């Protein structure tokens, strides 16, 4: 069998019952040795890679739709579709499939998947029952026709046979002509039967029937039949809505008649599915899958046709940004783009990528910058929707545009600042637009979507730009609302203002968690936390909770720069005042404040614990319904004990080091003569012997030792032993002597008489050794320096 190559798109149906585009290529049918049969092969037109390799199975049900689609299922929950560029290509591949399966190419479906019980019933039927005979298309037989259509819906095979019968001899068009007769005669019974017939035909789920029913000649009659639901007292007026209320507006004249017809058809079919037909039951969900596919592929075709018409889109953008364009015309243009972007959501990722790149190249972002700043609420709302499509698709594209805007331009006209101002000035009492814009801003400043390897500097550059040009605009309402801290009347905001401040705080809290350096610098430079905590006095509890959450997120960073900032500013005071003012009420505010202090206790943030206990414990010690504050006090006392033990341990280490140094570095004879350890003992045998005898009879360290000359005639070390050296109250002064003259100076004479020994617990080492400096540094890093008020 010869190969036939045709240009197609390969689609697969995902779990959400949406078609995913797998790529564009050329299809052929050929024998594949590995699969042992004739197979459909699709190779990508870009690189020749294999997009699809599917054996044509004799038992697989293939379905032909809309003249250019072939759909089938290869396995459970795995549906495939080939969308052909040309009808001739689709027909040729369809003939190959039918040839392999031994089917008539005139069929729209090769076979239906049926369960075993259905197959058994089918085999038991007489041969004549395989065919569905339709009654004559007459008014008197409408009830019979309606019963027949309704009865076959439960049988896949009978649905297929009925669909074939309806397609023969123009039966559907004859039925729709009877509708006009019944309506002229006001034959309600006949109209009710026609409603059941048309509804049942839609549930047959056959693309070939849809092509007839949704043609320009028939679709309004189909809508008319669906107006006469027997369960309604009065028929609906769907046709009146579609022809009079719903107006088709061509913002720019569409010269392509096929495109215009496709737009009309898609709108009306979507109306039938969404408005006219009742919500399908669980058992009817799959009955309209072909209708969904029909709409989907129509939208894909519309977007593709518009996208390829560069002259049309260029004209739309030109009028949109022209200052001379009337407001009503501009409103229509923006609404057109909104619908255009909404249709683009049916495209698959690679096609949607090309679509938005086309819009970006034509200047969609500069146009939005203009229209989002206009006074017309409808225009701004539509522009916001378009902006949301762009941000959702590619935040990086929006960020790149923003950073390329001229820096000499006034900050107020930057796109992000326009978005922020629109969020701040939202007139909706529920702030619906502000919430949407806040979500878009959050997406734009989220570092998680700034990690593309192709642009590693995006995060640093954009955040620097945002904090330099935009952050001050975002915080204007917050800083203005908390400007007069002493005047609590300033906190009597209305609900809408409180909601806006809560949105801003939510965004700032996000920044604390994700931006670290930039937001830390901004908070400290603006003293922002102090201003935020003013809102703890708000009558709106949700706003006070937002302020508390902001502080909680800051403390949650466990950053000592933040901790020192909080301690220095006494920023726990408004939180503790709110806790005390709340009294014994057990509410969310109370729980959130307790959780803040519990976190500090559990994480053992020493600097904050010391600050809280030193300054606020007297006010908090009466709170006993939780053990949080007693736990903080316990942590505080444990730290004091550790510091005391550390000091004593340091003294004992210093004293022990002194003894070891005396033993290792210097040997003394009983007359107090200093001997160098480094000399060989054979050079001074007499002194060495005297030292060994003195060591055996040595009783205490309080004996006065005077420096003596060594046999060489010079002093190596001079020790000053006071009586306090024995009891630990004074230290020894150890220093090198560079000349005999300096060593013999009266200043180096021994100390005075001894004093009675003190108790060991009072020992404090006063000797600093160079070797101990590193250890002291380590101790200082491990725990904060002892504060003057710590022992109070």
From TrEMBL:
Indicate, by first and last residue, each region the UniProt record lists as having compositional bias (Basic and acidic residues).
695-707
Biased composition regions of type Polar residues, renumbered to the chain: 711-721, 736-752
Superkingdom of the source species:
Eukaryota
PANTHER family noted in UniProt: ATP SYNTHASE GAMMA-RELATED, SERINE_THREONINE-PROTEIN PHOSPHATASE 4 REGULATORY SUBUNIT 3B
Compositional bias annotation for Low complexity: 723-733
Hey, which family's this protein in? Belongs to the SMEK family.
Q: Where is this region: Disordered?
A: 695-792
Q: What does this protein do?
A: Regulatory subunit of serine/threonine-protein phosphatase 4.
Q: Which Pfam families match?
A: EVH1_PP4R3 (PF22972), PP4R3 (PF04802)
* Gene Ontology annotations for the cellular component aspect, listed alphabetically: nucleoplasm; protein phosphatase 4 complex
Q: Can you say what this protein is called?
A: Serine/threonine-protein phosphatase 4 regulatory subunit 3
Give the compositionally biased regions (Acidic residues).
769-781
| SUPFAM superfamilies recorded | ARM repeat, PH domain-like
Give the organism the record lists: Oncorhynchus mykiss (Rainbow trout)
Output the Gene Ontology terms for molecular function.
protein phosphatase activator activity
A biological-process GO annotation: DNA damage response
Q: Where is the PP4R3 EVH1-like domain?
A: 5-101
């Amino acid at each position: 069998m010869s190969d036939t190559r045709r240009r197609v798109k390969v689609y697969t149906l995902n779990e959400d019952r949406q078609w995913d585009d797998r790529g564009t290529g050329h299809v052929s049918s050929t024998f594949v040795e590995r699969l042992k049969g004739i197979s459909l092969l699709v190779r990508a037109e870009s690189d020749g890679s294999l997009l699809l390799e599917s054996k044509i199975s004799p038992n697989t049900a293939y379905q032909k739709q809309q003249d250019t689609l072939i759909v089938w299922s290869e396995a459970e929950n795995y549906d495939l579709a080939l969308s052909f560029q040309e009808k001739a290509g689709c027909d040729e591949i369809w003939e190959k499939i039918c040839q392999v399966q031994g089917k008539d190419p005139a069929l729209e479906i090769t076979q239906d998947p049926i369960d075993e019980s259905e197959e058994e019933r089918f085999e038991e039927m007489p041969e004549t029952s395989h065919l569905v005979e339709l009654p004559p298309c007459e008014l008197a037989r409408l009830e019979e026709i309606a019963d027949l259509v309704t009865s076959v819906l439960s049988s896949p095979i009978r649905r297929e046979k009925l669909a074939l019968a309806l397609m023969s001899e123009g039966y559907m068009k004859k039925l729709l002509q009877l509708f006009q007769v019944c309506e002229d005669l006001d034959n309600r019974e006949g109209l009710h039967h026609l409603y059941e017939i048309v509804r049942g035909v839609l549930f047959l789920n056959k693309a070939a029937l849809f092509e007839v029913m949704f043609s320009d000649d028939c679709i309004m009659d189909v809508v008319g039949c669906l107006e006469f639901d027997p369960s309604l007292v009065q028929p609906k007026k769907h046709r009146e809505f579609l022809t009079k209320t719903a107006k088709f507006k061509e913002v720019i004249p569409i010269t392509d008649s096929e495109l215009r017809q496709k737009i009309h058809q898609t709108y009306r079919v979507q109306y039938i599915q969404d408005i006219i037909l009742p919500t399908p039951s669980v058992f009817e969900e799959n009955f309209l899958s072909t209708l969904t596919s029909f709409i989907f592929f129509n939208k894909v075709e519309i977007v593709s046709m518009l996208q390829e018409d560069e002259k049309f889109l260029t004209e739309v953008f030109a009028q949109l940004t022209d200052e001379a364009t009337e407001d009503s015309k501009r409103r229509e243009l923006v609404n057109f783009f909104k619908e255009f972007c909404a249709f683009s959501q049916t495209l698959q990722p690679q096609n949607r990528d090309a679509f938005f790149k086309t819009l970006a190249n034509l200047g969609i972002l500069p146009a939005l910058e203009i229209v989002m700043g206009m006074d017309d609420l409808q225009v701004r709302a539509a522009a916001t929707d378009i902006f949301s499509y762009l941000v959702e698709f590619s935040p990086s594209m929006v960020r790149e545009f923003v950073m390329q805007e001229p820096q000499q331009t006034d900050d107020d006209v930057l796109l992000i600042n326009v978005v922020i101002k629109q969020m701040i000035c939202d007139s909706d009492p529920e702030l619906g637009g502000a919430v949407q814009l806040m979500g878009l801003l959050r997406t734009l400043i989220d570092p998680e979507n700034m990690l593309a390897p192709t642009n590693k500097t995006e995060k640093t550059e954009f955040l620097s730009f945002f904090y330099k040009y935009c952050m001050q605009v975002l915080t204007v309402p917050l800083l203005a609302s908390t400007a007069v801290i002493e005047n609590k009347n300033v906190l009597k905001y209305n609900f809408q203002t409180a909601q806006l401040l809560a949105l801003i705080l939510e965004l700032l809290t996000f920044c604390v968690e994700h931006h670290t350096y930039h937001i830390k610098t901004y908070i400290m430079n603006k003293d922002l936390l102090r201003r935020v905590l003013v809102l703890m006095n708000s009558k709106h509890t949700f706003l006070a909770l937002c302020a508390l959450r902001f502080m909680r997120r800051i403390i949650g960073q466990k950053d000592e720069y933040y901790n020192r900032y909080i301690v220095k500013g006494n920023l726990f005071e408004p939180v503790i005042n709110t806790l005390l003012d709340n009294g014994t009420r057990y509410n969310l505010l109370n729980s959130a404040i307790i959780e803040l202090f519990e976190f500090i206790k559990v994480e053992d943030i020493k600097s904050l614990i010391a600050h809280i206990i030193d300054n606020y414990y007297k006010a908090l010690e009466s709170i006993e319904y939780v053990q949080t504050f007693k736990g903080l006090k316990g942590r505080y006392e444990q730290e004091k004990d550790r510091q005391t033990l550390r000091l004593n341990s340091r003294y004992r280490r210093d004293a022990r080091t002194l003894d070891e140094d005396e033993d290792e570095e210097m040997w003394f004879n009983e007359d107090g003569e200093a001997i160098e350890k480094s000399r060989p003992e054979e050079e001074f045998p007499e002194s060495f012997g005297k030292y060994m005898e003195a060591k055996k009879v040595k009783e205490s360290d309080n004996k006065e030792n005077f420096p003596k000359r060594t046999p060489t005639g010079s002093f190596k070390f001079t020790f000053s032993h006071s009586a306090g050296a024995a009891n630990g109250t004074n230290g020894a002064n150890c220093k090198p002597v560079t000349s005999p003259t300096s060593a013999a100076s009266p200043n180096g004479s021994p100390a005075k008489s001894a004093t009675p020994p003190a108790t060991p617990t009072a020992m404090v080492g006063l000797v600093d050794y160079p070797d101990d400096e590193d250890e002291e540094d380590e101790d200082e890093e491990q725990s904060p320096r002892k504060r003057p008020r710590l022992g109070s």
